[in-house]
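User: Round two. Same drill as before: sequence, then structure, for each protein.

Assistant: Same drill it is. First protein:
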Amino acid sequence: EALGRSEFVLDEWKRQYSNEDTRPVALPWFWQNYKPEEYSLWSVNYKYNNELKLTFMANNLIGGFHARLEASRKYLFGAQAVYGANYDCVIQGVFLVRGQDSQPAFEVGPDWESYEFRKLDHTNPEDRKLIEDQWAWDVPVVIDGKEYPFADGHVFK
């Protein structure tokens, strides 16, 4: 492994996220243990939201994307969701990525170029809120002043 051994135990984070309440327990555990020198955080949003139709079909896109990321499972954790309603929905999510570059972890999936990747700064309050909201799935997203409620999603762990 070119990145060396990590002090942050990704599998333990995945257990915390899966087994504990997200906001009161899992997220505080994450921030206490997160090592930004070892892992980076990325907003991963679908580029073609205007082409999405039914929310279940959009959610199937997420599931397919996650299935094709299997080769990178030991380097990634993320949650992506469909927000909105049929014929008016968007796909957004946040991933934790081993290292500082997202491309090596995501390019194993042939549809990775359908997503926009933006590196997040965990010290920026807006980015930190985005991370928590995307992983908790308990608040709507607002895009261009329009609110989209959570519809469905997938966790990649």
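Second protein:
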Amino acid sequence: MSPDFPMPHGYVWQYEWIRWIQTIHAPWLERVLHYLTILGTERFYVIVLPVIFWGISKQLGLRLAYVFLTSMFVNGWMKDALRVVRPMGIPGIQSSHTATATGYAMPSGHAQGSITFWGLVARWVGKAWFWILALLLAFGIGASRVYFGLHWPLDVMIGWLIGLVFVFVGWGLGRWWSYRQFAFNVRMTFAVGIPLVMFIIHTGTASAQYASLLLGIGVGAVMEERWLGLELSETWWKRVCAVVIGMAGLIALQWFIKWPADVLVWIIVRDVLIGLWATFGAPYVFLRSGLYQKSEASQ
């Protein structure tokens, strides 16, 4: 299965891997890989992250958002810096699900994002069985990108490695931050400063989206802690109602701030507002509606 045309030496074995894995044809396998690749898309994380913040754990949701969005920002920066072309269109390689493949190839965003997200959740759960599940999910999501001819194997491997670094470093920094009671102005400075540094470092559209979301999420979280101090209810139906209301607001923001979607300034405004809604606007509605209440420490 070696290429019958010139290729850089470091890509011959990767070409052979893709050709070999694409010889495996099974309808059930292709369906599983299809769903796995969907699990690695940005839309999945945009839905799941606020659900965790509103309905499971504010601390986990905020930590996930910061580490995951920073990880994906670095991913986009590295892609534009390395400029590795995807295997799509190369003779002998069949590519599908191409709508989920934008920009350059290395490192794989699906691989890096999946190991970052599921690895952090596994750290929070703290159970061996969940670590196994998290690693299997990350492996499957990364493997699906090779199977569908969207990434070179090395793209996926490097994405996994970078994601693991973010899991352990990000979790450690999150714990360090949580155990220190910084003043309001210090926390707000970090909430604004980190995204601004991102805007300066890299000005790509995807990077601007990550920085904008982080700006809204961070500023909203600092304000929520200062003025709301929300405590999630122990009643399951109240948590479900909160998630439904929160998602309705999220969809409304995406719908009403949709035109002109191709203008970067509108994308930034929309994503900042989405972040603010997730960590401040929605919690305010939850508090006013009686779904949640202030924690004793905030009263």
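The radius of gyration is 21 Å.

User: Perfect.
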